[in-house]
Write a structure and sequence with these properties.
This protein is an alpha/beta fold and about 400 residues long. It is built from 14 helices and 14 strands. The strands form 4 sheets. Strands 2-10-9-8-7-3-4 form a 7-stranded mixed β-sheet, sandwiched between helices. It has a 3-stranded antiparallel β-sheet with strand order 11-14-13. Helix 5 runs parallel beside helix 6. It is globular.
Length: about 400
């Protein structure tokens, strides 16, 4: 029998799902599990969105739709994304996608030559690295430096790697897994770098609206950036619609047309009645979204307080995303661990607390000597956060 393709051997995966499998297996044996490992949500999609989808399905919106997306949704997205970011978009700047994730592969498929280099954040969403390497590109990871307020981009690391083969920069402000948020100065530095080296930019803005204070800003809004930037937008987090699989790519017309060509080749179109529900999302009341954010903020605060109550944990309180990235080096060393995997699994088996390690978000970079883990709090209620962290505190102390 013939072997799998060489290209397939380069394909990675979303490693948080592997952690989920460990948690599910432990739970199947009758053990309690506190799920901090996956950025899913246990918050129900607001009723007005459910009603819009049900009505659209009953009205017959169950067949094929245009590959780039239905025009009313593209128009609504153009207005919404543009208004929130200070940009001028029309429907021609929008390609509807079955979630935010497909934007990554289609953007790279359209713009990354085989052998060309692409900069991507590490620790970061593992699909960046997976898709770069699958498509035959060279993945150039750039890291972050811990600071008093969270994390900042390692600028020297980026600058040292850029060559005349570097063509793409992936930027995830409001970052998964570390919750990092660029200052205006840092974002401008990155924009200047992209312009200087003529880089295409994928701005992953999945968490643009998931913030508890301050105002989000898109790198695409900076001078000279709109014509070289594609924005990844998703309904998943903003409207508690992780399983609905609805998002879009927003950017220059020529690139959006190329991305829509991939739509036709890969899935034909996004679900029609879900797209109709997407219009309702963008034109509906703001109260349900504020309620989602308020619940997430309560969970964030409870988790930060519980983590800081554990001797040996260092963590900051980010104003965006629903992730925490605590430094647990002191605990790791105090307990004599040498394996992040064993550290994670022992915590699961002894306390039921399931989290991801830093290693689930890209290969550890040279010079990294601290031990970080990631907690997602979007899928667990406050009472269970406190219960799980109480057990973890007893085990670690």
């Amino acid at each position: 029998m013939r072997k799998f393709s060489t290209r397939y051997s380069r394909l990675g995966t979303e490693t948080a799902f592997a952690v989920g499998a460990d948690a599910a297996a432990w739970a199947a044996k009758g053990n309690p599990v506190y799920p901090f490992h996956l950025g899913d949500m246990n918050i129900i999609t607001p009723d007005y969105i459910l009603d819009a989808a049900n009505k659209a399905a009953r009205d017959g919106k169950t067949g094929y739709a245009p590959g780039p997306g239905i025009l009313p949704l593209r128009e609504a997205l153009a207005e919404n994304i543009g208004k929130d970011r200070g940009l001028q978009f029309t429907a021609e700047n929008i390609s509807v996608q079955p979630g935010g994730k497909p934007v990554i592969g289609k953007f790279l498929g359209a713009l990354l030559e085989e052998g060309a280099e692409a900069l991507y954040p590490n620790p970061g969403y593992p699909i960046y690295e997976s898709q770069i390497e699958y498509l035959g590109g060279k993945a150039l990871p750039y890291g972050y430096v811990p600071s008093e307020t969270g994390f900042t981009i390692n600028r020297a690391e980026i600058e040292a790697q850029i060559t005349d083969r570097t063509s793409i920069l992936i930027y995830n402000n409001y970052q998964n897994p570390i919750g990092a948020e660029s200052t205006v100065e840092e974002m401008q530095w990155l924009a200047d770098l992209a312009i200087k080296h003529d880089l295409w930019v994928l701005s992953d803005e999945a968490y643009f609206e998931v913030r508890y204070g301050g105002t989000s800003k898109s790198i695409a809004s900076l001078p000279g950036m709109a014509e070289r930037t594609v924005i990844l937008y998703t309904f998943s987090k903003k409207f508690a619609m992780t399983g609905w699989r609805l998002g879009c790519a927003a950017g220059p017309k020529a690139v959006i047309e190329a991305i829509s060509k991939f739509n036709t080749n890969q899935e034909s179109c996004s679900n029609h009645f879900v797209q109709v529900a997407g219009i309702a999302c963008l034109q509906g009341p703001e109260k349900p979204q504020k309620e989602i954010l308020n619940e997430l903020k309560i969970r964030r605060d409870a988790l930060v307080d519980a983590l800081l109550d554990i001797d040996g944990v260092q963590v900051t309180k980010p104003e965006t995303t629903f992730y925490l990235f605590p430094d647990v080096t002191e605990i790791y060393q105090r307990m004599g661990y040498t394996s992040p995997a064993k550290f994670r699994l022992d915590a699961l088996y002894e306390t039921g607390v399931s989290f991801c390690s830093r290693e689930h978000f890209g290969r550890r970079l040279p010079g990294e000597d601290r031990v970080f883990i990631r907690f997602a709090y979007s899928g667990i209620n406050v009472d269970r956060i406190q219960e799980g962290l109480f057990a973890l505190k007893k085990f670690w102390e």
